[in-house]
């Protein structure tokens, strides 16, 4: 059965349509048409002063709705996290495992595979943030879990093929052979929690790297004589950079500078959200340490930032407030992460694409989210 949603504005990922409707059947987009042309009997929901955008995709989500993926590595936890983030505009996300044991890494891969098989709405894959990181830039991770993987160790994991797999690694700690193995296994590699010098980030390593994780945070800084990871990330055109845009992790001007430096399409918004998002509980456990929301910041006992307390809708609103055009901000939350994850049928509202959309009020508050043809 055909269904439709309409609004004063639709942004399809390329251009705007005024007073238009998005029409889908089952889980596939059929058309964008003027509201006046909709069949009279179509099941149809109208949002008056709103914009319909391609469904938001958040590639770094540690938790939500009171659940931390690290503490509950199951499809049920993924379901709860997706639900919590949907209320903040996220159509799809990559549940993200913070550095854990190899057993838990294996569990995370299997949980994501099961979640996709069970058609839990909103799961795009899984993000393994570590444990192949640099202890000099551990952030809130447990550095005792870090190691440099051998090919045998990589081979032993139950890699999955029905969902996207993203790995954040400090690429100076991972051999060229291991990076090549990951590339050949269709694993998306992003450099993060890295203390590399620009020299250590060789052309070979960069050619095997798809992106950089939470640009500016937990990476060696940009300096005149030493570009570090930040300078290299900004200067490596093929690689995307994800940024936490809560206004706490990264100064707005640093974000705007990154936007000037990167080719269009290579800067993405992530939340790096934790269990506290969409939950009344302001306190949760990670690896035996207590993380708490204090003044909208999530901090551990050492005072290190431990993820963010923000949703995608607010993250998009922030960058618009900082001076990014609305359409570019919407693409940073949908089109560009879809491209970064190689999700070919997401990130645009286009016939034949998966029926996924985010409906925002004129103040960028989430009104509704469409995921695979189901309106939430
Ligand atoms: Zn991190």
Can you tell me about this structure?
The chain has 2 domains: 2-53 and 354-375, Roll (Urease, subunit C, domain 1), CATH 2.30.40.10; 56-340, Alpha-Beta Barrel (TIM Barrel). It is 24% helix and 30% strand. The chain has 10 helices and 21 strands. It has helices at 75-86, 102-117, 151-155, 176-184, 203-207, 228-235, 252-261, 312-321, 326-333, 335-340, and strands at residues 2-11, 16-25, 28-34, 43-54, 56-61, 63-64, 67-68, 90-98, 125-129, 164-169, 188-191, 211-212, 240-244, 267-270, 283-286, 289-294, 297-299, 305-308, 357-361, 366-371, 374-375. The longest helix is centred in the N-terminal third of the chain and has 16 residues, at 102-117. The structure holds zinc ion (ZN). The site of zinc ion has 5 residues, from loops. Zinc ion (ZN) is lined by residues 129, 139, 193, 214, 218. The active site is at residue 272.
Which descriptors apply to this entry?
376 residues; alpha/beta; TIM Barrel; eight-stranded parallel β-sheet; seven-stranded mixed β-sheet; 21 strands; 24% helix; globular
């Amino acid at each position: 059965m055909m269904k439709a949603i309409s609004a004063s504005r639709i942004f399809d990922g390329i251009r705007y349509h005024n007073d238009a409707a998005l029409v889908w059947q089952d889980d596939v987009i059929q058309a964008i048409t003027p509201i006046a042309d909709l069949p009279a009997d179509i099941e149809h929901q109208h949002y008056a002063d709103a914009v319909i955008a391609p469904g938001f995709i958040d590639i770094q989500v540690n938790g939500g709705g009171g659940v931390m993926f690290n503490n509950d590595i199951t499809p049920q936890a993924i379901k709860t996290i997706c639900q919590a983030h949907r209320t903040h505009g996220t159509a799809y996300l990559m549940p993200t495992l913070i550095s854990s044991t190899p057993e838990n890494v294996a569990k995370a891969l299997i949980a994501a595979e099961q979640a996709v098989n069970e058609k839990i709405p909103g799961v795009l894959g899984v993000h393994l943030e570590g444990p192949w990181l640099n202890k000099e830039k551990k952030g809130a991770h447990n550095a005792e879990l870090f190691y440099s993987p051998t090919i045998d160790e990589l081979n032993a994991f139950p890699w999955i093929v029905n969902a996207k797999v993203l790995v954040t690694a400090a690429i100076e700690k991972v051999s060229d052979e291991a990076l090549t193995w990951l590339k050949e296994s269709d694993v998306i590699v992003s450099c993060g929690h890295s203390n590399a010098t620009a020299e250590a980030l060789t052309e070979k390593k960069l050619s095997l790297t798809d992106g950089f994780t939470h640009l500016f945070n937990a990476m060696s800084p940009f300096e005149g004589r030493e570009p570090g990871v930040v300078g290299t990330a900004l200067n490596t055109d093929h690689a995307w950079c994800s940024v936490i845009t809560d206004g706490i992790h990264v100064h707005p001007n640093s974000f705007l500078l990154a936007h000037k430096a990167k080719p269009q399409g290579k800067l993405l918004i992530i939340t790096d959200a934790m269990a506290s998002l969409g939950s009344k509980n302001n306190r949760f456990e990670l690896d035996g340490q207590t993380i708490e929301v204090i003044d909208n910041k999530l901090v551990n006992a050492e005072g290190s930032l431990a993820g963010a307390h923000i949703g995608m809708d607010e993250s998009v609103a922030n960058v618009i407030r900082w001076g990014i055009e609305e359409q570019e901000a919407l693409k940073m939350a949908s089109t560009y992460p879809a491209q970064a994850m190689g999700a070919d049928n997401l990130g645009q509202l286009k016939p034949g694409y998966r029926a996924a959309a985010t409906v925002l009020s004129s103040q960028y508050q989430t009104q509704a989210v469409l995921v695979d043809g189901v309106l939430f």
